[in-house]
Structures are given as structure tokens and as C-alpha cells.
Design brief:
Length: 605
């Protein structure tokens, strides 16, 4: 259901050309799992960019769509504009943009809201990226979306189909065929929606449903029309009453220069958008387990975010995110997304690759306190490397140390240096390998190479992708592994078909003076030592695993960082074994004091 008539489409016409280069990975063979999915989807992401990045050139638009020329008038600085208080001019602008940029011809009734193209497209692109990045297959055979309250224009289904087709025809990686379901409670709106679908020859791609205003938000006849729904979209009525609309206008939350012609069912609902989206959350508790992968809704009021996030937490839903859409004009909107399935929200990849990577697009509306700890990356800083450690690259040392810890967990042999074989006490060296473990061992991993920072620089293995098929890191699991053979079967004898956890750990060398204050503080340096020592920064990103496995994730992360930290610390004095024994001794004392072992918490970056 469209939310307001604030006009943002006066801004933006320039195409964005830059590609998505967040991960410049290369490997000697095709990668697997989440990494392969990211690389393949990134081929399509540059084609999923919003073209409205600056002010619209109305003169050029009138040349492209001659029928729009009648609404032009002189504006500031000699630029042509339109009268945003003129409802006909606003509708002509929307129609012209759709015709020129998407080859869509739509009929917009004068008693219904006129959709604003730049902001609607921003929401749509966000949802399409989310669906692609979290699909079960790197390139799914098809995608299905559901628009709740499609309105008279059916703008989201029409834009979605045209955008997907355009991305597929202009990309080296084909965009999967897209089907859209759309619902509305109003006969008048549905009549126009049907006309617009038919007029654009999209009846096979868009299916419309009349639903009961007092019934379920996701009726059975709608969700059962397809095997699976990959994403839902919703632009709910923002307000609880007409009095609230008047108060909002008085506070200038709506643009005073735009004329509003929305019907009551498009603007007002009992309880406002909080009550509407709350019903969606309640229904998702059942539908989200199998039928629907991602639920999303646009939010028009910043005050709505807190109660809805609190509701998700009370339902033990950790896989959620609040995203601020890049503003167009003066309007700011947010998207609330949540899922009950095991593909995690891809925080580092889902946004527009050309948009600033900030948690919110407006400093006056901070989002940090609404972010889920299970969605945010976790960071760990090792102790500083000693000044005497100058013969080797710290990044290489941490890479080998982490690989060694993983091999120890699955019982793989670790090569010893010649000095160690001769009796000298020296750190063991890992046999260099790009991968290790197996499904049978319960843990498998693969190192991926990233290009150097400058041209000609040698590539380094700075990230490892890990699949954990079962818990092999807890003390109970490590003790059991010495007495029983490994297996991937569940307690009921069934075979495991998906990993318990899938994650990525990225490595980076930083100066001890630039380490995050949230990390464990390094030991104090002597006053005479003024040169900052290098530290390794480990960053964890969770890609797969149900919410119930969050304690397993924190336990695994705690185990890995403790082992790596102990072995880096051992470089500064004493032996590695002494450091490990000291750590184990502290652990035994802590268990005696607390009466058991507790899993560590992930510290968000």
C-alpha cells in the first residue's frame, strides 16, 4: 500500500557505471558455497543500481516523452521544473519516467496515491539483492515475490519484472525469471492494477489477488499459489488516524510542496504501520519456517522502528536488519527485513554498491541500537607482535596459526620444522594448503586469495570460508572425538544435508595504536617503545545457520580467537605450549569457580 505522495523523482537521472568490487577474490578453481554465490551475484549487482542519482533533467525528459512538455515551467537558476502542487503535473512526471526508463505505460487514477519512482525503485533493488544473495542456489532457476497492498498502479510488480528483465539482458550472468504475486483489499485499486498489468503484457508474470481487509495479511490462497516465496514487500498505511496525518503535516514530516490524493485505505489503518507490520511478524512465525524466505516492509516513521525490533526480539528472531534507504529529495524511509530460515542477512553486500557504506543515511536518525548482534560482524584483535618478530609477515603468521588450529580440531597432521625435529623448541609450521577438513570430519574450510593493494603486488590469502557440519570445538566434542569415530549423521540416523554454520573470517594487519577500543586492550608497552607494533584483526561474518545456532557460533568464535591470541602472545615470551597450558589452567580454575563452561559472546564491531 503506497505511503505518501512525497515527490522524490525530481532528483536523479544519471546512470551509475561503477561495478561492485567489494570482494576481488580469485582462485585456482571455482569456489563453493556462500563465496561462489557472492561472486556470481556480484556480476549482476552493477545492473541493479538506481539510475536516479542526481536531479532530473526535465527538459531532456520532455524531449524523450513529448507529452510531458506541457507541464514544464521556469524554475530557479534557469532550470525547468514542474508545479508539484499540480496533481496532473506530478502524475505526468511519474508516467514519463516509467515510459522512458522502464518502457511501462500506466494509468493513474486521480483519487489514488501517485507512486514516486526513485524511492520505490530503491526499496525494490534492496529486496532483489537480498533475495539473490541468500538463495539456496548461487543462481536460482526462478524468484517469486509478493507485494502486500499493491495499489492502483501495481508499481512494485511492474518495476520488478522490468528491472529483472533489463538486468538479465545487460549482464554476463543471467537474472533468474521473476514472478510477482500482488494483493489489495480495494476493488477500485485492483481494477486499475489489472488494467496496468494487461496494458504492459505482463499477465503471465504478475498475479493479482483480492483479499479481505479483516483477514490474514498472507492468505492461504495467495501463499499456496506457488511452491515458495522468496521475498515479500509492503508499503503499509503509515497513520492511525486523519488527526495523526494533520499532526504530521504540521511537523513537516510530509513534503508541503506535494499534493496528497491518497484514499483512506492507503493512508490510515488502526494502529498505524506498527500494528500492520506487527501482524506480519505474528503470521511469519509459521509461514517463515518453510514457505517464505524473507519478510520486508517499508517504514515511514523513525518512531516505528523501536517497537517492531522489540517485537522481533521477543519472538526470538535474531536474523533481522533495519536498513536506511538512500534519500531522494527530502524523504527518508527505512526497510525492516527478517527471516526465520538459515541464510543470514548479508550485511556487507546487500546495499547499493555505489551508496555510502554507513549504518544510516541520516545522522539525525541513528540505527546502531536497532541492529542485531547476530547480523553484525564480530572483530578480534590479537596481542601486538613483538618488535623482535621482523623476519616474517604477521599476516602470514596468523594465517598459518588459524589454519593450524582448524587442523587440530579435525585431527589432521601438522608438519614440523627441521629445528623442531632436531629437538629445538620452535613453533610448528603448517603445510601450506588452500583448503582442509571434510564433511566427515565435521569441519571444512577453504582459503581464498584477494588481490594486492597495488598493481603487481602478490595476492595474499586474507580470508577463510568455513563450513561447520557439527560442533567439534566444544570441550565435550573434543573429548568425544578421541573415543569415537566421526560421523555426519544426526541422532536419528538422518544424513546432514546443510552445514550447521557457514562463515567467513577475514584477516588484516593493523597498527596497535589503531585497534578498536572495544577489543581486548594489549599489554602496556614500555615508555621507551614509541613505535606502534602490528596486530592482526580478525573479522567474522556469519552467512548460514539458524538463530538457534547463535550460541554455537559464539562458542566457535571464542575458541578460535582464544587459541590464535595465545599463540601470538607466546611470541613475546615463553613457549607456545606454556601459553596454552596457562590458558588451560585459567580455564580449569574458572570452571571450578563457575561450575561449568560458558560460551563467549560475539563482540560486534
Amino acid at each position: 500500500m503506497p505511503q505518501s505522495c512525497a515527490i522524490e523523482q525530481s532528483r536523479g537521472a544519471g546512470k551509475r557505471e561503477q561495478g561492485f568490487e567489494r570482494n576481488r577474490g580469485r582462485s585456482d578453481r571455482p569456489p563453493a558455497g556462500s563465496r561462489r554465490q557472492l561472486l556470481l551475484v556480484q556480476l549482476m549487482l552493477p545492473r541493479l543500481a538506481n539510475p536516479y542519482s542526481g536531479q532530473t533533467d526535465f527538459a531532456q525528459l520532455a524531449r524523450d516523452v513529448p507529452s510531458f512538455a506541457a507541464f514544464l515551467q521556469d524554475g530557479h537558476s534557469g532550470r525547468l521544473t514542474i508545479d508539484f502542487q499540480d496533481d496532473a503535473a506530478v502524475r505526468a512526471l511519474t508516467a514519463a519516467l516509467l515510459e522512458r526508463d522502464f518502457r511501462l505505460r500506466i494509468e493513474l487514477p486521480s483519487d489514488r496515491l501517485c507512486p514516486t519512482i526513485p524511492s520505490r525503485l530503491e526499496y525494490l533493488l534492496f529486496v532483489l539483492r537480498l533475495a539473490l544473495l541468500t538463495s539456496e542456489e548461487p543462481l536460482p532457476s526462478t524468484l517469486t515475490g509478493l507485494d502486500i497492498g499493491t495499489g492502483a498502479s501495481a508499481i512494485y510488480p511492474l518495476l520488478a519484472i522490468r528491472t529483472a528483465k533489463s538486468a538479465s539482458s545487460s549482464s554476463t550472468s543471467p537474472f533468474p525469471p521473476l514472478k510477482m504475486l500482488a494483493t489489495d483489499i480495494n476493488d477500485h485499486s485492483l481494477d486499475f492494477a489489472k488494467r496496468n498489468v494487461v496494458a504492459n503484457d505482463l499477465t503471465e508474470a504478475v498475479q493479482l489477488f483480492k483479499v479481505d481487509a479483516e483477514g490474514a495479511t498472507f492468505p492461504e490462497e495467495v501463499v499456496n499459489a506457488v511452491e515458495q516465496i522468496d521475498f515479500t514487500m509492503c508499503n503499509p498505511p503509515f497513520y492511525d488516524s486523519h488527526e495523526e496525518i494533520a499532526a504530521s503535516l504540521a511537523k513537516k514530516e510530509l513534503e508541503p510542496f506535494s499534493k496528497c490524493t491518497g484514499a483512506d485505505n492507503e493512508m490510515v489503518t488502526p494502529g498505524g504501520e506498527v500494528a500492520f507490520v506487527s501482524r506480519m511478524v505474528e503470521e511469519s512465525l509459521v509461514l517463515g519456517k518453510q514457505k517464505i524466505r524473507w519478510f520486508t516492509s517499508l517504514l515511514g516513521k523513525y518512531s516505528s522502528i523501536s517497537p517492531l525490533v522489540d517485537l522481533l526480539k521477543s519472538k526470538k528472531i535474531r536474523n533481522y536488519h533495519v536498513h536506511a534507504l538512500p534519500p531522494h529529495g527530502y524523504t527518508i524511509r527505512w526497510v525492516l527485513s527478517w527471516s526465520l530460515q538459515d541464510k543470514r542477512f548479508p550485511l556487507d553486500s546487500v546495499g547499493d554498491p555505489d551508496a555510502p557504506s554507513t549504518p544510516t543515511s541520516a545522522p539525525s536518525f541513528p540505527l546502531t541500537r536497532f541492529l542485531s548482534p547476530a547480523t553484525l560482524p564480530a572483530t578480534y584483535f590479537t596481542p601486538p607482535f613483538p618488535s623482535s618478530f621482523s623476519s616474517r609477515d604477521p599476516l602470514e603468521h596468523v594465517r598459518e596459526t588459524l589454519d593450524e588450529v582448524l587442523r587440530e580440531l579435525v585431527g589432521e597432521p601438522i608438519g614440523a620444522s627441521a629445528e623442531e625435529q632436531g629437538g629445538r623448541r620452535k613453533r610448528r609450521r603448517v603445510v601450506r594448503s588452500h583448503e582442509g577438513g571434510s564433511v566427515v570430519s565435521g569441519l571444512e574450510w577453504r582459503w581464498s586469495e584477494t588481490a594486492g593493494e597495488s598493481e603487481g603486488e602478490e595476492a595474499e590469502e586474507r580470508e577463510v570460508w568455513i563450513k561447520a557440519w557439527r560442533n567439534v570445538w566444544s570441550r565435550k566434542a573434543r573429548r568425544a572425538s578421541t573415543h569415537a569415530p566421526s560421523t555426519t549423521a544426526g541422532e536419528d540416523g538422518s544424513t546432514t544435508t546443510s552445514p550447521l554454520l557457514e562463515l567467513r573470517i577475514s584477516l588484516e594487519v593493523v597498527s596497535s595504536s589503531s585497534a578498536s577500543p572495544s577489543a581486548s586492550p594489549p599489554p602496556p608497552r614500555p615508555v621507551s617503545q614509541t613505535k606502534p607494533q602490528p596486530q592482526a584483526k580478525l573479522t567474522l561474518t556469519w552467512y548460514r545457520g539458524f538463530d538457534a545456532e547463535y550460541p554455537s557460533l559464539t562458542g566457535f568464535w571464542g575458541y578460535l580467537t582464544r587459541k590464535v591470541g595465545e599463540r601470538v602472545k607466546a611470541l613475546g615470551g615463553g613457549t607456545e605450549r606454556e601459553a596454552e597450558e596457562a590458558g588451560e589452567g585459567k580455564g580449569r580454575k574458572r570452571r571450578r569457580d563457575e561450575g561449568g563452561e560458558k560460551a563467549g559472546e560475539v563482540e560486534p564491531s
